[in-house]
From TrEMBL, chains A, B:
Family from the record: Belongs to the Nudix hydrolase family.
Transmembrane regions: none
SUPFAM superfamilies: Nudix, Winged helix' DNA-binding domain
Gene3D superfamilies associated with the record: Nucleoside Triphosphate Pyrophosphohydrolase, Winged helix-like DNA-binding domain superfamily/Winged helix DNA-binding domain
UniProt name for this protein: NUDIX hydrolase
Amino acid sequence: MRGYDKHAYEPFAVTVDLAVLTLRAGALHVLLVERGQEPYAGRWALPGGFLLPEESAEEAARRELGEETGLADVSGLHLEQVRAYSEPGRDPRMRVVSVAFAALLPDPPEPRPGTDAAEARWTPYERATGLAFDHDRILANARARVGARLESTCLATAFCPPEFTLGELQQVYESVWGTPLDRPNFRRKVLATPGFVEPVPGGARLTGGRGKPAALYRAGPATALHPPLPRTPREGHPA
Amino acid sequence: MRGYDKHAYEPFAVTVDLAVLTLRAGALHVLLVERGQEPYAGRWALPGGFLLPEESAEEAARRELGEETGLADVSGLHLEQVRAYSEPGRDPRMRVVSVAFAALLPDPPEPRPGTDAAEARWTPYERATGLAFDHDRILANARARVGARLESTCLATAFCPPEFTLGELQQVYESVWGTPLDRPNFRRKVLATPGFVEPVPGGARLTGGRGKPAALYRAGPATALHPPLPRTPREGHPA
DNA sequence: TCAAAAGTGTTGCTAATACACCCATGC
DNA sequence: GCATGGGTGTATTAGCAACACTTTTGA
Protein backbone atom coordinates (compact mmCIF):
# COMPACT_ATOMS: atom_id res chain seq x y z
CA MET A 1 0.00 0.00 0.00
CA ARG A 2 3.07 2.20 0.00
CA GLY A 3 5.57 2.97 -2.74
CA TYR A 4 3.15 2.08 -5.46
CA ASP A 5 3.26 2.67 -9.16
CA LYS A 6 0.21 1.87 -11.19
CA HIS A 7 2.29 0.28 -13.92
CA ALA A 8 5.06 -1.30 -11.92
CA TYR A 9 3.26 -4.61 -11.56
CA GLU A 10 1.63 -7.00 -13.93
CA PRO A 11 -2.09 -6.38 -13.88
CA PHE A 12 -4.32 -8.91 -12.24
CA ALA A 13 -7.74 -9.95 -13.33
CA VAL A 14 -10.28 -10.19 -10.54
CA THR A 15 -13.25 -12.48 -10.80
CA VAL A 16 -15.96 -13.91 -8.61
CA ASP A 17 -16.87 -17.59 -8.44
CA LEU A 18 -20.21 -18.68 -7.10
CA ALA A 19 -21.20 -21.83 -5.29
CA VAL A 20 -24.96 -21.53 -5.70
CA LEU A 21 -26.46 -24.04 -3.30
CA THR A 22 -30.03 -25.19 -2.96
CA LEU A 23 -32.10 -28.14 -1.84
CA ARG A 24 -33.89 -30.29 -4.36
CA ALA A 25 -35.83 -33.28 -3.11
CA GLY A 26 -34.06 -33.04 0.21
CA ALA A 27 -30.57 -33.19 -1.25
CA LEU A 28 -27.96 -30.47 -1.56
CA HIS A 29 -27.45 -29.33 -5.14
CA VAL A 30 -25.06 -26.89 -6.73
CA LEU A 31 -25.43 -24.89 -9.92
CA LEU A 32 -22.81 -25.77 -12.52
CA VAL A 33 -22.17 -24.39 -15.99
CA GLU A 34 -20.57 -26.22 -18.87
CA ARG A 35 -17.59 -24.42 -20.27
CA GLY A 36 -17.80 -23.61 -23.93
CA GLN A 37 -14.20 -22.65 -24.58
CA GLU A 38 -10.68 -23.48 -23.62
CA PRO A 39 -9.29 -23.99 -21.17
CA TYR A 40 -11.36 -26.80 -19.72
CA ALA A 41 -13.81 -26.71 -22.65
CA GLY A 42 -16.63 -29.16 -22.03
CA ARG A 43 -15.87 -29.39 -18.35
CA TRP A 44 -18.24 -28.26 -15.64
CA ALA A 45 -17.40 -25.25 -13.53
CA LEU A 46 -18.85 -22.91 -10.98
CA PRO A 47 -20.52 -19.88 -12.51
CA GLY A 48 -18.65 -16.63 -12.22
CA GLY A 49 -17.19 -13.72 -14.07
CA PHE A 50 -15.10 -10.62 -14.05
CA LEU A 51 -15.65 -7.62 -11.85
CA LEU A 52 -16.87 -4.59 -13.72
CA PRO A 53 -14.84 -1.41 -13.20
CA GLU A 54 -17.28 0.13 -10.74
CA GLU A 55 -18.61 -2.76 -8.73
CA SER A 56 -17.47 -4.61 -5.66
CA ALA A 57 -17.06 -8.35 -5.54
CA GLU A 58 -20.37 -8.64 -3.69
CA GLU A 59 -22.14 -6.66 -6.39
CA ALA A 60 -20.51 -8.69 -9.12
CA ALA A 61 -21.52 -11.90 -7.40
CA ARG A 62 -25.13 -10.78 -7.14
CA ARG A 63 -25.19 -9.70 -10.76
CA GLU A 64 -23.78 -13.03 -11.89
CA LEU A 65 -26.25 -14.84 -9.70
CA GLY A 66 -29.13 -13.14 -11.46
CA GLU A 67 -27.65 -13.79 -14.89
CA GLU A 68 -26.98 -17.45 -14.29
CA THR A 69 -30.18 -18.39 -12.52
CA GLY A 70 -32.49 -16.18 -14.54
CA LEU A 71 -34.14 -15.04 -11.34
CA ALA A 72 -35.73 -11.62 -11.64
CA ASP A 73 -35.22 -10.49 -8.07
CA VAL A 74 -32.01 -11.61 -6.53
CA SER A 75 -31.74 -8.85 -3.96
CA GLY A 76 -32.97 -10.79 -0.96
CA LEU A 77 -30.79 -13.83 -1.41
CA HIS A 78 -27.98 -14.58 0.93
CA LEU A 79 -24.43 -14.22 -0.31
CA GLU A 80 -21.60 -15.35 1.89
CA GLN A 81 -18.03 -14.55 1.02
CA VAL A 82 -15.90 -17.65 1.37
CA ARG A 83 -12.37 -16.48 0.67
CA ALA A 84 -10.05 -15.32 -2.09
CA TYR A 85 -8.01 -17.65 -4.29
CA SER A 86 -4.82 -16.25 -5.69
CA GLU A 87 -2.39 -19.04 -6.56
CA PRO A 88 -0.41 -17.98 -9.64
CA GLY A 89 -1.22 -21.04 -11.74
CA ARG A 90 -4.89 -21.39 -11.07
CA ASP A 91 -5.90 -20.05 -14.47
CA PRO A 92 -3.52 -21.00 -17.27
CA ARG A 93 -4.29 -17.91 -19.30
CA MET A 94 -3.29 -15.16 -16.94
CA ARG A 95 -3.08 -14.08 -13.37
CA VAL A 96 -6.60 -14.31 -11.96
CA VAL A 97 -7.53 -13.63 -8.36
CA SER A 98 -10.95 -14.94 -7.58
CA VAL A 99 -13.26 -14.09 -4.70
CA ALA A 100 -15.55 -17.01 -3.95
CA PHE A 101 -19.10 -16.68 -2.67
CA ALA A 102 -21.66 -19.14 -1.48
CA ALA A 103 -25.22 -18.25 -2.49
CA LEU A 104 -28.22 -19.87 -0.84
CA LEU A 105 -31.43 -20.36 -2.79
CA PRO A 106 -34.76 -21.44 -1.38
CA ASP A 107 -36.61 -22.40 -4.53
CA PRO A 108 -34.63 -24.07 -7.25
CA PRO A 109 -35.63 -22.54 -10.56
CA GLU A 110 -34.55 -24.30 -13.71
CA PRO A 111 -31.40 -22.48 -14.66
CA ARG A 112 -31.24 -20.79 -18.01
CA PRO A 113 -28.01 -20.92 -19.87
CA GLY A 114 -25.98 -17.77 -19.47
CA THR A 115 -25.47 -15.21 -22.15
CA ASP A 116 -22.64 -17.26 -23.54
CA ALA A 117 -24.98 -20.13 -24.44
CA ALA A 118 -23.21 -22.67 -22.28
CA GLU A 119 -25.41 -25.11 -20.46
CA ALA A 120 -26.26 -24.66 -16.80
CA ARG A 121 -27.53 -27.42 -14.56
CA TRP A 122 -28.34 -28.26 -10.97
CA THR A 123 -26.08 -31.07 -9.86
CA PRO A 124 -26.20 -33.12 -6.67
CA TYR A 125 -23.34 -32.03 -4.49
CA GLU A 126 -21.75 -35.47 -4.40
CA ARG A 127 -21.57 -35.66 -8.17
CA ALA A 128 -20.00 -32.23 -8.56
CA THR A 129 -16.43 -33.41 -8.89
CA GLY A 130 -13.79 -33.02 -11.53
CA LEU A 131 -14.64 -29.36 -12.02
CA ALA A 132 -12.56 -26.92 -14.03
CA PHE A 133 -9.79 -24.83 -12.46
CA ASP A 134 -9.62 -25.17 -8.70
CA HIS A 135 -13.38 -25.24 -8.41
CA ASP A 136 -13.44 -28.57 -6.59
CA ARG A 137 -11.63 -26.94 -3.75
CA ILE A 138 -13.73 -23.79 -3.86
CA LEU A 139 -16.92 -25.80 -3.74
CA ALA A 140 -15.70 -27.86 -0.79
CA ASN A 141 -14.66 -24.72 1.07
CA ALA A 142 -18.03 -23.14 0.35
CA ARG A 143 -19.93 -26.10 1.69
CA ALA A 144 -17.76 -26.25 4.80
CA ARG A 145 -18.28 -22.55 5.40
CA VAL A 146 -22.03 -22.76 5.04
CA GLY A 147 -22.10 -25.80 7.31
CA ALA A 148 -20.16 -23.94 9.97
CA ARG A 149 -22.41 -20.90 9.69
CA LEU A 150 -25.48 -23.05 10.21
CA GLU A 151 -24.20 -23.89 13.67
CA SER A 152 -23.93 -20.38 14.95
CA THR A 153 -26.18 -18.22 12.79
CA CYS A 154 -29.75 -18.21 11.55
CA LEU A 155 -28.53 -18.72 8.02
CA ALA A 156 -30.59 -21.87 7.49
CA THR A 157 -33.73 -19.90 6.77
CA ALA A 158 -32.02 -18.51 3.67
CA PHE A 159 -32.50 -21.95 2.11
CA CYS A 160 -36.22 -21.83 2.82
CA PRO A 161 -39.07 -20.01 1.12
CA PRO A 162 -40.65 -17.09 3.01
CA GLU A 163 -42.94 -19.48 4.86
CA PHE A 164 -41.67 -22.89 5.78
CA THR A 165 -42.21 -25.78 8.16
CA LEU A 166 -39.80 -26.93 10.81
CA GLY A 167 -39.42 -30.14 8.88
CA GLU A 168 -38.10 -28.20 5.91
CA LEU A 169 -35.73 -26.29 8.15
CA GLN A 170 -34.48 -29.52 9.61
CA GLN A 171 -33.84 -30.88 6.12
CA VAL A 172 -31.57 -27.92 5.47
CA TYR A 173 -29.39 -28.89 8.38
CA GLU A 174 -29.45 -32.56 7.54
CA SER A 175 -28.57 -31.98 3.89
CA VAL A 176 -25.74 -29.56 4.46
CA TRP A 177 -24.28 -31.42 7.42
CA GLY A 178 -24.97 -34.87 6.09
CA THR A 179 -26.24 -36.08 9.47
CA PRO A 180 -29.73 -37.00 10.61
CA LEU A 181 -31.12 -35.03 13.54
CA ASP A 182 -33.65 -35.94 16.17
CA ARG A 183 -36.86 -34.14 15.28
CA PRO A 184 -38.23 -33.40 18.76
CA ASN A 185 -34.91 -32.05 19.96
CA PHE A 186 -34.32 -30.03 16.82
CA ARG A 187 -37.74 -28.50 17.18
CA ARG A 188 -37.14 -27.53 20.79
CA LYS A 189 -33.77 -25.97 20.10
CA VAL A 190 -35.07 -23.87 17.23
CA LEU A 191 -38.11 -22.67 19.13
CA ALA A 192 -36.04 -21.99 22.23
CA THR A 193 -33.88 -19.52 20.32
CA PRO A 194 -35.71 -16.20 20.43
CA GLY A 195 -35.98 -14.56 17.06
CA PHE A 196 -34.87 -17.52 14.98
CA VAL A 197 -38.33 -18.35 13.62
CA GLU A 198 -41.78 -16.84 14.17
CA PRO A 199 -45.06 -18.66 13.67
CA VAL A 200 -47.14 -17.25 10.86
CA PRO A 201 -50.38 -16.15 12.55
CA GLY A 202 -53.15 -18.43 11.36
CA GLY A 203 -51.44 -20.94 9.16
CA ALA A 204 -51.11 -24.62 8.77
CA ARG A 205 -50.12 -26.51 5.71
CA LEU A 206 -51.84 -29.43 4.21
CA THR A 207 -51.75 -30.28 0.54
CA GLY A 208 -48.24 -31.51 0.12
CA GLY A 209 -47.56 -34.01 2.84
CA ARG A 210 -49.05 -37.33 3.71
CA GLY A 211 -48.94 -36.73 7.45
CA LYS A 212 -50.31 -34.19 9.87
CA PRO A 213 -50.28 -30.67 8.45
CA ALA A 214 -47.27 -28.78 9.73
CA ALA A 215 -47.31 -25.30 11.18
CA LEU A 216 -45.73 -22.57 9.09
CA TYR A 217 -43.00 -20.26 10.28
CA ARG A 218 -41.10 -17.31 8.93
CA ALA A 219 -37.55 -16.20 9.55
CA GLY A 220 -37.29 -14.10 12.69
CA PRO A 221 -35.18 -10.99 13.30
CA ALA A 222 -32.27 -12.79 14.95
CA THR A 223 -29.06 -13.35 13.05
CA ALA A 224 -26.90 -15.13 15.63
CA LEU A 225 -27.67 -18.38 17.37
CA HIS A 226 -27.02 -18.44 21.12
CA PRO A 227 -26.35 -21.09 22.10
CA PRO A 228 -25.16 -22.66 18.85
CA LEU A 229 -26.95 -25.60 17.34
CA PRO A 230 -24.37 -28.36 17.75
CA ARG A 231 -23.59 -30.61 14.87
CA THR A 232 -23.36 -33.84 16.84
CA PRO A 233 -26.30 -36.18 17.26
CA ARG A 234 -24.12 -39.27 16.91
CA GLU A 235 -20.47 -38.60 17.34
CA GLY A 236 -17.67 -40.16 19.28
CA HIS A 237 -17.54 -38.01 22.35
CA PRO A 238 -16.34 -40.41 25.02
CA ALA A 239 -14.98 -37.90 27.51
CA MET B 1 -14.35 -16.82 -16.25
CA ARG B 2 -15.82 -17.10 -19.70
CA GLY B 3 -15.74 -14.70 -22.62
CA TYR B 4 -12.65 -13.00 -21.36
CA ASP B 5 -10.31 -10.58 -23.00
CA LYS B 6 -7.15 -9.65 -21.21
CA HIS B 7 -7.55 -6.01 -22.12
CA ALA B 8 -11.30 -5.61 -21.99
CA TYR B 9 -11.32 -4.59 -18.35
CA GLU B 10 -9.54 -2.01 -16.29
CA PRO B 11 -6.66 -3.66 -14.50
CA PHE B 12 -6.92 -4.18 -10.77
CA ALA B 13 -4.17 -3.95 -8.24
CA VAL B 14 -4.14 -6.72 -5.70
CA THR B 15 -2.65 -6.23 -2.27
CA VAL B 16 -2.53 -7.94 1.08
CA ASP B 17 -3.26 -6.23 4.38
CA LEU B 18 -2.05 -7.75 7.62
CA ALA B 19 -3.53 -7.58 11.07
CA VAL B 20 -0.49 -8.75 13.02
CA LEU B 21 -1.75 -9.57 16.50
CA THR B 22 0.19 -10.37 19.61
CA LEU B 23 -0.04 -10.18 23.38
CA ARG B 24 2.04 -7.69 25.30
CA ALA B 25 1.62 -7.53 29.06
CA GLY B 26 -1.58 -9.49 28.79
CA ALA B 27 -3.25 -7.13 26.34
CA LEU B 28 -3.96 -7.60 22.66
CA HIS B 29 -1.74 -5.45 20.45
CA VAL B 30 -1.65 -4.91 16.71
CA LEU B 31 1.26 -3.83 14.52
CA LEU B 32 0.65 -0.50 12.80
CA VAL B 33 2.79 1.47 10.38
CA GLU B 34 2.76 5.19 9.88
CA ARG B 35 2.11 6.20 6.33
CA GLY B 36 4.77 8.36 4.75
CA GLN B 37 2.89 9.49 1.67
CA GLU B 38 -0.50 10.48 0.41
CA PRO B 39 -3.16 9.47 0.69
CA TYR B 40 -3.52 9.33 4.43
CA ALA B 41 0.05 10.58 4.99
CA GLY B 42 0.85 10.60 8.68
CA ARG B 43 -2.01 8.27 9.50
CA TRP B 44 -1.57 4.80 10.92
CA ALA B 45 -2.42 1.78 8.83
CA LEU B 46 -2.13 -1.96 8.76
CA PRO B 47 1.05 -3.17 7.08
CA GLY B 48 0.64 -4.62 3.63
CA GLY B 49 1.71 -4.44 0.05
CA PHE B 50 1.31 -5.56 -3.49
CA LEU B 51 1.40 -9.12 -4.71
CA LEU B 52 4.46 -9.91 -6.76
CA PRO B 53 3.79 -11.46 -10.16
CA GLU B 54 4.53 -15.00 -9.09
CA GLU B 55 3.29 -15.25 -5.55
CA SER B 56 -0.03 -16.05 -3.97
CA ALA B 57 -1.69 -13.81 -1.43
CA GLU B 58 -0.55 -16.16 1.35
CA GLU B 59 3.04 -15.94 0.16
CA ALA B 60 2.84 -12.18 -0.15
CA ALA B 61 1.41 -11.92 3.34
CA ARG B 62 4.22 -14.02 4.78
CA ARG B 63 6.83 -11.99 2.96
CA GLU B 64 5.37 -8.73 4.20
CA LEU B 65 5.17 -10.15 7.70
CA GLY B 66 8.89 -10.83 7.66
CA GLU B 67 9.69 -7.43 6.24
CA GLU B 68 7.58 -5.50 8.71
CA THR B 69 8.47 -7.36 11.87
CA GLY B 70 12.11 -7.97 11.05
CA LEU B 71 11.73 -11.56 12.17
CA ALA B 72 14.23 -13.88 10.53
CA ASP B 73 12.07 -17.00 10.43
CA VAL B 74 8.44 -16.37 9.76
CA SER B 75 7.64 -19.77 8.32
CA GLY B 76 6.04 -21.29 11.40
CA LEU B 77 3.71 -18.41 12.20
CA HIS B 78 0.03 -18.74 11.74
CA LEU B 79 -1.64 -16.81 8.93
CA GLU B 80 -5.38 -16.77 8.69
CA GLN B 81 -7.13 -15.36 5.66
CA VAL B 82 -9.92 -13.08 6.77
CA ARG B 83 -11.63 -12.03 3.55
CA ALA B 84 -11.19 -9.88 0.46
CA TYR B 85 -12.12 -6.21 0.28
CA SER B 86 -13.06 -4.88 -3.10
CA GLU B 87 -15.25 -1.79 -2.79
CA PRO B 88 -14.43 0.55 -5.68
CA GLY B 89 -13.63 3.60 -3.57
CA ARG B 90 -11.53 2.04 -0.87
CA ASP B 91 -8.29 3.41 -2.27
CA PRO B 92 -8.61 6.86 -3.85
CA ARG B 93 -5.74 6.27 -6.26
CA MET B 94 -6.95 3.28 -8.20
CA ARG B 95 -8.88 0.09 -8.07
CA VAL B 96 -7.32 -2.02 -5.32
CA VAL B 97 -8.60 -5.37 -4.19
CA SER B 98 -7.09 -6.38 -0.91
CA VAL B 99 -6.89 -9.77 0.72
CA ALA B 100 -6.71 -9.42 4.49
CA PHE B 101 -4.85 -11.78 6.79
CA ALA B 102 -4.59 -12.12 10.52
CA ALA B 103 -1.13 -13.12 11.74
CA LEU B 104 -0.55 -14.42 15.24
CA LEU B 105 2.76 -13.81 16.98
CA PRO B 106 3.90 -15.37 20.22
CA ASP B 107 6.79 -13.11 21.13
CA PRO B 108 6.46 -9.47 20.30
CA PRO B 109 9.73 -8.26 18.82
CA GLU B 110 10.28 -4.57 18.53
CA PRO B 111 9.24 -3.84 14.98
CA ARG B 112 11.72 -2.29 12.67
CA PRO B 113 10.53 0.27 10.22
CA GLY B 114 9.90 -1.17 6.78
CA THR B 115 12.04 -0.52 3.78
CA ASP B 116 10.12 2.64 3.12
CA ALA B 117 11.35 4.23 6.36
CA ALA B 118 7.91 4.74 7.83
CA GLU B 119 7.55 4.06 11.51
CA ALA B 120 6.10 0.82 12.80
CA ARG B 121 4.69 0.34 16.29
CA TRP B 122 2.80 -2.11 18.47
CA THR B 123 -0.46 -0.50 19.48
CA PRO B 124 -3.03 -1.69 22.02
CA TYR B 125 -6.03 -2.96 20.11
CA GLU B 126 -8.41 -0.49 21.72
CA ARG B 127 -6.31 2.48 20.63
CA ALA B 128 -5.99 1.29 17.03
CA THR B 129 -8.76 3.46 15.63
CA GLY B 130 -8.90 6.10 12.95
CA LEU B 131 -6.73 4.03 10.63
CA ALA B 132 -6.16 4.80 6.97
CA PHE B 133 -8.36 3.39 4.20
CA ASP B 134 -10.89 0.86 5.49
CA HIS B 135 -8.40 -0.61 7.91
CA ASP B 136 -10.60 -0.03 10.94
CA ARG B 137 -13.06 -2.46 9.47
CA ILE B 138 -10.40 -4.92 8.39
CA LEU B 139 -8.90 -4.94 11.86
CA ALA B 140 -12.27 -5.49 13.50
CA ASN B 141 -13.06 -8.33 11.12
CA ALA B 142 -9.68 -9.89 11.79
CA ARG B 143 -10.15 -9.80 15.52
CA ALA B 144 -13.64 -11.26 15.22
CA ARG B 145 -12.36 -14.03 13.01
CA VAL B 146 -9.55 -14.92 15.35
CA GLY B 147 -11.93 -14.85 18.30
CA ALA B 148 -14.29 -17.23 16.54
CA ARG B 149 -11.45 -19.57 15.61
CA LEU B 150 -10.34 -19.74 19.21
CA GLU B 151 -13.64 -21.36 20.08
CA SER B 152 -13.40 -24.27 17.74
CA THR B 153 -9.74 -24.72 16.87
CA CYS B 154 -6.45 -25.05 18.68
CA LEU B 155 -5.33 -21.72 17.25
CA ALA B 156 -4.63 -20.20 20.67
CA THR B 157 -1.26 -21.91 20.92
CA ALA B 158 -0.10 -19.85 17.94
CA PHE B 159 -0.01 -16.86 20.28
CA CYS B 160 2.24 -18.74 22.68
CA PRO B 161 5.95 -19.53 22.62
CA PRO B 162 6.93 -23.17 22.03
CA GLU B 163 6.58 -23.93 25.72
CA PHE B 164 3.95 -22.15 27.72
CA THR B 165 1.88 -22.39 30.87
CA LEU B 166 -1.86 -22.82 31.02
CA GLY B 167 -2.06 -19.39 32.55
CA GLU B 168 -0.51 -17.90 29.45
CA LEU B 169 -2.89 -19.84 27.25
CA GLN B 170 -5.81 -18.59 29.28
CA GLN B 171 -4.59 -15.03 28.84
CA VAL B 172 -4.78 -15.51 25.10
CA TYR B 173 -8.46 -16.32 25.34
CA GLU B 174 -9.17 -13.56 27.80
CA SER B 175 -7.37 -10.92 25.76
CA VAL B 176 -8.90 -11.80 22.42
CA TRP B 177 -12.38 -12.37 23.75
CA GLY B 178 -12.28 -9.60 26.31
CA THR B 179 -13.85 -11.80 28.98
CA PRO B 180 -12.37 -13.27 32.15
CA LEU B 181 -12.49 -17.05 32.43
CA ASP B 182 -12.62 -19.30 35.45
CA ARG B 183 -9.17 -20.80 35.85
CA PRO B 184 -10.07 -24.25 37.21
CA ASN B 185 -12.70 -24.79 34.54
CA PHE B 186 -10.50 -23.50 31.74
CA ARG B 187 -7.75 -25.84 32.84
CA ARG B 188 -10.05 -28.84 32.86
CA LYS B 189 -11.47 -28.11 29.43
CA VAL B 190 -8.07 -27.69 27.83
CA LEU B 191 -6.66 -30.84 29.40
CA ALA B 192 -9.78 -32.80 28.55
CA THR B 193 -9.30 -32.10 24.85
CA PRO B 194 -6.92 -34.76 23.55
CA GLY B 195 -4.09 -33.34 21.48
CA PHE B 196 -4.65 -29.70 22.39
CA VAL B 197 -1.64 -29.42 24.70
CA GLU B 198 0.99 -31.89 25.87
CA PRO B 199 3.00 -31.58 29.08
CA VAL B 200 6.69 -31.06 28.51
CA PRO B 201 8.35 -34.03 30.20
CA GLY B 202 10.30 -32.78 33.20
CA GLY B 203 9.47 -29.14 33.39
CA ALA B 204 8.28 -26.59 35.84
CA ARG B 205 8.73 -22.88 35.67
CA LEU B 206 9.85 -20.61 38.40
CA THR B 207 11.72 -17.38 37.87
CA GLY B 208 9.07 -15.12 36.50
CA GLY B 209 6.01 -15.43 38.68
CA ARG B 210 5.42 -14.67 42.31
CA GLY B 211 3.24 -17.73 42.86
CA LYS B 212 3.58 -21.46 42.54
CA PRO B 213 5.63 -22.49 39.50
CA ALA B 214 3.39 -23.53 36.64
CA ALA B 215 3.80 -26.66 34.57
CA LEU B 216 4.93 -26.18 31.00
CA TYR B 217 3.06 -27.44 27.96
CA ARG B 218 3.56 -27.50 24.24
CA ALA B 219 1.02 -27.42 21.44
CA GLY B 220 -0.35 -30.85 20.67
CA PRO B 221 -1.14 -32.40 17.29
CA ALA B 222 -4.85 -31.58 17.31
CA THR B 223 -6.18 -28.74 15.19
CA ALA B 224 -9.90 -28.85 15.93
CA LEU B 225 -11.54 -28.48 19.30
CA HIS B 226 -14.29 -30.98 20.07
CA PRO B 227 -16.28 -29.91 21.90
CA PRO B 228 -15.69 -26.21 21.32
CA LEU B 229 -14.51 -23.99 24.13
CA PRO B 230 -17.53 -21.80 24.66
CA ARG B 231 -17.14 -18.09 25.01
CA THR B 232 -19.65 -17.63 27.80
CA PRO B 233 -18.73 -17.56 31.47
CA ARG B 234 -21.91 -15.59 32.10
CA GLU B 235 -23.41 -14.20 29.01
CA GLY B 236 -26.81 -13.66 27.52
CA HIS B 237 -26.58 -12.58 23.94
CA PRO B 238 -30.01 -11.42 22.94
CA ALA B 239 -30.41 -11.41 19.20
C1' DT C 1 3.76 -14.30 57.38
C1' DC C 2 1.42 -12.61 53.72
C1' DA C 3 0.28 -12.19 48.85
C1' DA C 4 -0.04 -14.24 44.52
C1' DA C 5 -0.49 -17.70 41.27
C1' DA C 6 -1.04 -22.92 40.33
C1' DG C 7 -3.65 -26.69 40.92
C1' DT C 8 -7.56 -30.07 43.07
C1' DG C 9 -12.10 -31.27 44.81
C1' DT C 10 -16.95 -30.99 45.16
C1' DT C 11 -21.56 -29.70 44.65
C1' DG C 12 -25.69 -28.56 42.59
C1' DC C 13 -28.00 -27.10 38.70
C1' DT C 14 -28.99 -27.01 33.74
C1' DA C 15 -29.78 -28.88 29.65
C1' DA C 16 -29.74 -32.18 26.18
C1' DT C 17 -30.24 -36.86 24.47
C1' DA C 18 -32.95 -40.64 23.57
C1' DC C 19 -36.85 -42.22 23.68
C1' DA C 20 -42.19 -43.24 24.13
C1' DC C 21 -46.31 -41.56 22.88
C1' DC C 22 -50.34 -38.94 20.69
C1' DC C 23 -52.28 -36.29 16.50
C1' DA C 24 -53.85 -35.51 11.90
C1' DT C 25 -53.88 -36.48 7.28
C1' DG C 26 -53.71 -39.27 2.51
C1' DC C 27 -54.46 -43.52 0.45
C1' DG D 1 -56.77 -49.42 8.68
C1' DC D 2 -52.25 -48.10 8.23
C1' DA D 3 -48.43 -45.59 6.82
C1' DT D 4 -46.42 -41.08 7.16
C1' DG D 5 -44.91 -36.97 9.01
C1' DG D 6 -46.07 -33.33 12.88
C1' DG D 7 -45.95 -32.46 17.58
C1' DT D 8 -45.63 -33.26 23.03
C1' DG D 9 -43.93 -35.28 27.17
C1' DT D 10 -40.31 -37.11 30.12
C1' DA D 11 -36.42 -39.52 32.58
C1' DT D 12 -31.87 -40.35 32.83
C1' DT D 13 -27.55 -38.48 32.27
C1' DA D 14 -23.67 -35.70 31.39
C1' DG D 15 -21.57 -31.59 31.61
C1' DC D 16 -20.40 -27.53 33.52
C1' DA D 17 -20.34 -23.21 36.29
C1' DA D 18 -19.26 -21.73 40.74
C1' DC D 19 -16.70 -21.69 44.62
C1' DA D 20 -13.98 -23.68 48.52
C1' DC D 21 -9.72 -25.34 49.39
C1' DT D 22 -4.70 -26.77 49.17
C1' DT D 23 0.07 -26.03 47.38
C1' DT D 24 4.22 -23.58 46.38
C1' DT D 25 6.72 -19.87 45.48
C1' DG D 26 8.67 -14.54 46.20
C1' DA D 27 9.02 -10.77 49.18
